[in-house]
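Follow-up to my earlier ticket, as requested here are the two runs.
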Amino acid sequence: LLGVAYENGDGVGQDHKKAAEYFQESADQGDGHAMHNLAVMYHNGQGVEQNYKEAARYFQASADKGDPRATLKLADMHRRGAGFDKDFSEATRCAQEAADRGDVDCQLFLARAYGSGEGAKQDNKKAALWTQKAADQGNASAQLSLADMYYDGVGVDQNRKEAARWCRKAADQGHPDAQFHLGVLYLNGDGVPRDKKKAVMWIRTSADQGHPNAQHALGTYFSQGAPAAAPPQKPPSP
């Protein structure tokens, strides 16, 4: 607790060096969370000299105690070659362990690996499978990515209604990209009945969150009387 307090400046003056010292004490006693926090400090060079190998050592120790955050960080370090030789297949293996236990971030890591072919043989069906698992747990970015897969028929049978359904789930969680794409679907009657009012409502909601394409569409609406009808752009990877 003292380590976190000094790290965040919560009730005491922020002091990364003291935070690292307290994390080290707890890590030496086998505390997995402290191991993770100490690894982060070595990784970022906060309170200690930056040392990727030490970061990797403590992330591994934390992962061995079941912390999925550490597992994901290890996977990323293997992918980047930070503290290890660059090894995409080892990155995927690390992520697989936590993904199988239901960790959403690691599920998305695997979805990207299978989708891009980095760290695994490219397999759009497996990419869709892991995206689905993360989406089923309510991750809005995964839901939008799954919508995109259904829209284009990547890894799943093309189904515009399913695309709209998953897009709506992400939009309901406040995801501005999903809100914009859902508005365009309503505008074009693509996977949902054409509905200008709903289209404008969702595009406006997205624009209010600063989405540039939604703002442009609204500008077109106010200047020409109707938002520009265009197919949804591919959402970014989660």
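Run two:
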Amino acid sequence: MASGNAADVNPLKRQRQNSSFNMSSDLSKLNDLLDSISSDENEFKQAISLILNKENFKNALAGVFVTEVTQLRNELSDLYLRIDEMEQYSRRNCLKITGIPEEKNENTDTLALNVFNNLVLKENTEKISVKDISRSHRVGKYDPRRKTRDIIVKFTSYRDRAKVYGNKKTLKSYNNNPSKQTGRILINEALTTRRSELYGKTRDLVKKKKIDSTWTYDGRIYVKLSGPRGKNVIINSLEDLECFHEDNADSNHEEG
């Protein structure tokens, strides 16, 4: 007697069985409708209506779509990062000079060599010659209403590029000289658009005194945490900076 009423005693099992039966019935209807779609527009509308009005279909489709979209997003993100890495590697022999005034009929090789040999390597006997430069050019179109355009310099060898970049701190004496003939001149790595924007965020954190300092080396962005024992950390994405913004939000909350 008890075994004969087992289905009544387990309503969840009965519910699953009914759901499975309804799903099979709905699929049968859907298949019939899909077979006639090409010949009847109304049948197509009925098929769409069946899909949208049945929870079984909607839940199944939602699960498939969410999984597929998440996987595609992850794959696109990985691809984007790999492309960015390759683009940055292609710039490994390049440096960007900011602050050199523009001249009519200028030669950017000559302007760059003047900065390298007279302002950066003046204490170094090994100078950079024109044969050490593969090419150079201003960035963007000329517009007299805008600030001086940067100069991108591509060296023939990474060693010469590293020599200049490793001695760029000597520019401080020139930039701090009140009698200098130009504005401040800066030398930075030629970063990709993504890394340049990320580096801008870390510089903003320095201004807000959330971190001690930031710099780049071989295309990678570093920050030094505040404090006497602040360690160096590599920043790869905006997510790596969230902790600093959270600290900032907490401090603002406490002040309020």
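The only thing I checked on run two: The beta strands are 94-98, 133-138, 151-155, 186-189, 213-217, 220-224, 232-235. Let me know what else you need.
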